[in-house]
Amino acid sequence: MPEADFKPRVYVETTIPSFYHNYRPEPTMVARQEWTREWWDLQAWRYVLRTSAFVLEELSEGEYPDQDQCLRLLDEVPQLELTDEVGELAKVYMQRFVMPKGPSLDAFHLAAASIHRCDILLTWNCVHLANARKSAHIETVNREFGLPAPRLITPLELLADHENT
């Protein structure tokens, strides 16, 4: 495939539809919503989007404004297969303190994106996922399993990637 035809594979994590339909009035939340919408509406076509049942599970929990719209945003985004390998890698992430143990599905998002060789895991979770301090640890674990590590970034970073192109 010619280089010009290459579209990076992006795993769309739970926070992306959540911020697309944000209802919180704090300025930082509104800014994240604007950046998410700008990326989704104007630049998502540059990528092959993927998500997982983990994302739909998290979006379905509880009740909140625009919950249906968050789920509908992903209607046309194919789901990655959740294999035993995904679960096994998620356990390794938790055992090695790459991702927190507990009710969070962060380890499973990272494992799904890694096993399916996504180039990018798109998220606003800057504590557990899009965190520069975790990158080397993730790369080390993934290398042991013969896997590349996806770039863990926000929509704002992808917008900046395309400002100069």
Describe what this molecule looks like in 3D.
- By secondary structure, this protein is of the alpha/beta class.
- It has one domain (3-163): 5'-nuclease (Rossmann fold).
- Helices cover 49% and strands 8% of the residues.
- It has helices spanning 15-20, 27-42, 53-60, 67-73, 84-95, 106-115, 132-144, 155-163, and strands at 9-12, 48-50, 120-122, 151-153.
- A 4-stranded parallel β-sheet has the order 2-1-3-4, sandwiched between helices.
- Helix 2 (27-42) crosses helix 8 (155-163) and helix 5 (84-95) packs across helix 6 (106-115).
- It is globular and about 40 Å long.
Judged by helices, strands and strand pairing, the structural class is: alpha/beta
N-to-C CA distance: 21 Å
Could you describe the largest sheet, including whether it forms a barrel?
4 strands, parallel
Number of DSSP E strands: 4
- What proportion of the residues form beta strands (DSSP E)? 5-15%
Please work out how many helical segments DSSP would assign. 8
Strand numbers in spatial order across the main sheet: 2-1-3-4
One letter per element, helices H and strands E, the order comes to EHHEHHHHEHEH
List the helices and strands and how they pair.
Layout: E1 9-12, H1 15-20, H2 27-42, E2 48-50, H3 53-60, H4 67-73, H5 84-95, H6 106-115, E3 120-122, H7 132-144, E4 151-153, H8 155-163
Parallel strand pairs: 1-2, 1-3, 3-4
Helix pairs in contact: 2-8, 5-6
Brief write-up:
The protein is an alpha/beta fold.
Features:
165 residues; alpha/beta; Rossmann fold; 4-stranded parallel sheet; 8 helices; globular
